[in-house]
From TrEMBL:
GO terms for biological process: carbohydrate derivative metabolic process. Keywords: Isomerase. Signal peptide: none annotated. Gene3D superfamilies: Glucose-6-phosphate isomerase like protein, domain 1. Residues 49-163 form the SIS domain. This is 3-hexulose-6-phosphate isomerase. Its EC number is 5.3.1.27. It comes from Citrobacter koseri. Transmembrane segments: none annotated. GO terms for molecular function: 6-phospho-3-hexuloisomerase activity; carbohydrate derivative binding; DNA binding; DNA-binding transcription factor activity.
């Protein structure tokens, strides 16, 4: 009886959800991703990104949520290999001329549409700081605002309304 009641509650919960459940991320998306990054065109983009990174005195990583965690890791990784880097995880952190001078802002965002992240990117641009964005698609607002964009071309997947 308890198992039937729990099953009925679970079924009601699923039926009451506002969002339709997304299909599972399948093999075709994974294959498509690898095709999009395993080619000469993407290799050239990576080479250009490396040149931009090497020509910068310091790197400032920016992201929110999961992208923020990756930004923190990116800053640590680059610092470990000798490239001075830090990350910003405070959406109200002020961008100044001194911090932007000869710097590169690497801005991470899955959607490329997060308001706080777009504000950071535009603030860096206003202070003549180069902006390299990493997004899920090159047509996002962030990709268009950035000086250079890398996209991974994988459909955005949300579970319970979040990435």
């Amino acid at each position: 009886m308890t198992a039937t009641l729990n099953s009925a509650c679970a079924l009601n919960y699923i039926l009451e959800q506002d969002e339709p459940q997304q299909a599972n991320f399948g093999a075709s998306e994974i294959i498509s991703f690898f095709k999009s990054v395993n080619n000469d065109e993407f290799d050239k983009l990576l080479d250009q990104a490396v040149d931009i990174i090497l020509s910068s005195e310091r790197i400032i990583f920016v992201g929110a949520g999961t992208s923020g965690a990756l930004a923190k890791y990116g800053a640590r990784f680059f610092s470990n290999v000798g490239k001075f880097s830090n990350h910003i995880d405070d959406p109200y952190f002020p961008v100044t001329n001194d911090m932007a001078k000869n710097a590169l802002a690497i801005v991470l965002s899955v959607s490329g549409e997060t308001a706080e992240i777009l504000r950071f990117a535009s603030q860096f641009s206003l202070h003549n700081c180069k902006v390299l964005s990493i997004t899920s698609h090159e047509h996002s607002a962030l990709a268009k605002l950035a000086d250079f964009n890398l996209s991974w071309h994988v459909p955005q997947t949300r579970i319970a309304g979040v990435y």
